[in-house]
TrEMBL record:
NADP(+) binds at residues 165-167, 235. Catalyzes the oxidation of 5,10-methylenetetrahydrofolate to 5,10-methenyltetrahydrofolate and then the hydrolysis of 5,10-methenyltetrahydrofolate to 10-formyltetrahydrofolate. Belongs to the tetrahydrofolate dehydrogenase/cyclohydrolase family. The lineage of its organism: Bacteria, Pseudomonadati, Bacteroidota, Flavobacteriia, Flavobacteriales. This is Bifunctional protein FolD.
């Protein structure tokens, strides 16, 4: 039976460490780190996620600002606000919650963010630095997975790692990071996706499987080998007859996979809390390296 990679527990430890650093900053009569979140429209999941980030800021002692725009906001208006935030000496990092409405070019918005304040790690400059193994902001979810593997001392060197999903936010950066010359890293990485024939052929040989599909219960116990490490990034609302009307499901069929794996992340309580914690970590890094904190 697999042991649990407890993202909720580790994320609390990380936020406690950040809070201690912030307390020292405040004792030195310096301002608190400041994170700004931009929310466009009324998407329920986006609103819940942004609100959780605001609560995280309060928990660690950051200053936070939530800027809300209607779904009808123009691209030029949003770019103007981003320019203001780039220039603000009181803002260390900011995020634009995705997805954005159709009238807005998402890539143009991401490119407009000052890379030094891009705490989501999505800017091409930061992505390029990551690929070149240079110091930079890592995307929060991959950063969270790496940290979880590190804290549990999961051996990755020389291991076969299969990534399922090639999104710019998780799959693609994860494939780069697991192959880097560092710990966690030094794995032999296979990136699989919707055009991969017989994914099971790859997952059955993998020492580590990281899945980010958004396809509930996709990975079954019959698709993995004994003793493998399973990291489940997926989270989907599945309708049921419960009072809430749904339950949260990962990409992994937890019962069958946990019977064979050595380590596994739960959903919820695995990768999700780590993503939020690493956004706080990136904001603290941005604060420490800010040209305005002299």
């Amino acid at each position: 039976m697999a042991e649990i990679l407890d993202g909720l527990k580790v994320s609390k430890e990380i936020k406690a460490e950040i809070k201690t650093e912030v307390e020292k900053i405040l004792e030195g009569k310096r301002r608190a780190p400041h994170l700004v979140a931009i929310l466009v429209g009324n998407n329920g999941a986006s609103k819940a996620y942004v609100n959780s980030k605001v609560k995280d800021c309060e928990e660690v002692g950051f200053r936070s600002t939530l800027l809300k725009f209607p779904s009808t906001v123009s691209e030029s208006e949003l770019l103007e606000k981003i320019d203001d935030l780039n220039k603000s000496k009181s803002v260390d990092g900011f995020i634009v919650q995705l997805p954005l409405p159709d009238q807005i070019d998402q890539e143009k918005i991401i490119k407009a963010i000052d890379p030094r304040k891009d705490v989501d790690g999505f800017h091409p400059e930061n992505f390029g630095k990551m690929a070149l193994e240079m110091d930079t902001f890592l995307p929060a979810t991959p950063f969270g997975i790496l940290t979880l593997l590190e804290r549990y001392n999961i051996e990755t060197k020389g291991k076969d790692c299969v990534i399922i999903g090639r999104s710019k936010i998780v799959g693609r950066p994860m494939s780069i990071l697991m192959g880097r010359k560092d710990f966690p890293g030094n794995s032999t990485v296979t990136l699989t996706h919707s055009y991969t024939k017989d994914i099971e052929e790859y997952t059955k040989k993998a020492d580590i499987v990281i899945t980010a599909l958004g396809d509930p219960h996709f990975l079954k116990g019959s698709m993995i080998k004994d003793g493998s490490v399973i990291v489940d990034v997926g989270i989907t609302r599945v309708e049921d007859d419960s009072p809430k009307g749904y339950y949260l499901a990962g990409d992994v069929d937890f019962d069958s996979c946990s019977a064979k794996a050595s380590w596994i992340t739960p959903v919820p309580g695995g990768v999700g809390p780590m993503t939020r914690a690493m956004l706080m970590k990136n904001t603290l890094i941005a604060y420490k390296t800010s040209v305005y904190n002299d």
